[in-house]
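Below: protein 1.
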Amino acid sequence: MAFRDIALAVLVAALWGFNFVVIKEGLDTFPPLFFSALRFLSAAFPAVLFLRRGTIAWSTLLKVGIVLGVVKYSLLYLGVKLGMPAGLSSLAIQSQVIFTAVLSAYVLKDAPSAWQRVGMGVALSGILLLASTRQGSVSREGFALVIGAAMAWSVANILIKKAAVDTFRLMVWMSVVPPLPLLVLSFLFEQGQWEALPRLGTFKGLGAVLYTGLLATIVAFGIWGHLFRKYSPNVVAPFALLVPVFGMASSMLVLGERLSGMHVAAALLVLAGLVLVVLGKRLPGLGRAPAVPHPLTKG
């Protein structure tokens, strides 16, 4: 892998990791569902005017748009809003790798190797440790919602895998789907949308919307898709493991979040497990592993 492409892969991981800081800041400005709708509006327009839909079926766009755009991001934003720290959210959401592997085994008949099963167990133990800790500022409700977001993300991964379409084109066009249902849900269950609209004129408000919609979605996915077309998924996918590293580091530096000893132990277990799941195919001695699941977005 060329040095320039390595740098691009690390840049994408950094953009996705820092995205959790931006989400946290954006949720101080906008209601969660309303903020999510604004994110997808900025991702879809004007991008859809310059990128054709191609052969992607509208049924695929609707299914992915609802599961990934509405369900996953609603749960993630609500989880962070209810007190799940941004850094730990960037880690907990990666449990989607475990859920994707399990669904792949049952839906795609793509059974995980022995190494990957070990990794799933190690990562799961870290997730359970994170859930059980009473130290720090982890919200039980927020944690449950973020894990729910990870489950929705895994379902979307399977839908995209079965569709076998260009991921970047799919991400742009599926972004047309979530805004309307998210806005309906927002006006049904949230307050303060009209009061928040003028904040789009502030650096913090507009910056949060454009970063999550343009940088973390359009730019990051454009680069990620380019790398996946150029290299094997087994070469590119491991760089996604850097996302929670950047997420936790930037949350500590920018937001002043602190990790307890228990949080650090849980994080190390999750990261170690994810390494085994993602790289299991390269590890000899415990059987054949399926192809690495294509990670979608990181926040």
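Below: protein 2.
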Amino acid sequence: MLVLTWWRADILPIDPTAPVTAELVAQGSTDVGAPDSPLSLIGVWHLESATRDFGGYSALIALADGSLLAGSDTGTLLMIEHPGTATMAGSYPELAVTEGRAKRDADLEALTLDRTTGTIWGAYESSNAIERYSPGLQRLARVKPTKMRRSRGNGGPEAMVRLADGRFVVLAEVRFDSTPGHRAVLFPRDPTLGDEGVSFGFAAPEGMRPVDMTQLADGTVLVLVRSVEWYFPPRFASAIAVLDPVGIEPGALWRPERVIPLPEAVPQENYEGLAVEPGAGGASRLWLISDDNVSGFQRTLLVALDWRG
């Protein structure tokens, strides 16, 4: 989560029927000088909607039906149907427990899912909590794992992925002086079942922080990392860190095998959500969404990238 407070957009009414518009702002890949990159740009869309529940997206998952589900740091959701097509549309499903929540308990920073059962998990940064939901978004469980309790402020879970073998990996955005790397926890199974997990560290690239993560069909884990320079407006840089989950060891640093910058044609923005849509022949479609911080000088961008590892 990145907090910006000096310039807020106009306060809009809450309108769950407000349509979501999508304007194509970049297309294709014109990059040169990076022939070994597995990433190629498909398109970038600027999303807008005239409702207070729109924006601030910090989590993203690709559902089995081809739609995308984004979560915001105010606990609201955006369903994107037919993403990247002429019929792309958005709607606002509700978490059964969102209404009336305090900001501390609504800071949804990560989503992950079991594509077979449709079960969804959400991680809340400020309250250091993980929740499990049914495919219909009814809350089934909520825990505050022991290994995460010492986190404070925005030091709670920022990125989370359910691995294909049923384990869960959770990363914090900030670093703590007493531990190497970014704080991380590996759970042997669904953390809402009560397992404490084991601690380790994530070695982010210099000057960057983890903001979301996902897993490819071959088992490779991708972590979206981001840096920010505090100009006005701020300048962002994003990359994809490539890791092998076999390399996770208790108390050790989990180091990327490779760090891949986004294609130059992708506009700079505060990308905080990453999802993968499995494809044929070893290819995958990656989706990114940006957190506009509900500010007047940032945008909600949806990015489609093809991955050929």
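The chain has one domain: 23-308.
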